[in-house]
Design a protein that fits this description.
1 helix; 5-stranded antiparallel sheet; 5 strands
Length: 99
């Protein structure tokens, strides 16, 4: 399995899925204009009738004052190019609050 660490590299090969994931993040997970999601890594799983792109993004969350990571996947059905995007989890990576 190839692990992608560049959004450009994964987008070049799996553009439909990555575009759908980015649109999902912009629509459902936008924080503010100052804090954007940054691509960390991704990988692809080919199935018989579809492929699934799994990605990890991170950002600074201003309310939590922490680095937050989100995992988002996109499944592309080969027969009809239907794309299903879902959030597969979020986690607090680093709390930046100091006492």
């Amino acid at each position: 399995m190839q692990i992608y660490t560049s959004i450009d590299d994964i987008w070049c090969e799996w553009g439909k899925a990555i575009t759908a994931i980015i649109e999902y993040l912009e629509e459902k997970e936008s924080l503010s204009d100052k804090h954007e999601w940054h691509f960390n890594k991704g990988y692809v799983v080919n199935q018989h009738d579809a492929y699934c792109v799994y990605t990890t993004f991170s950002t600074y969350h201003p309310i939590l004052k922490s680095i937050v990571e989100i995992h988002v996947s996109a499944t592309v059905e080969l027969a009809d190019n239907k794309i299903t995007v879902k959030d597969t989890g979020k986690r607090l990576v680093k709390n930046t609050i100091t006492s």
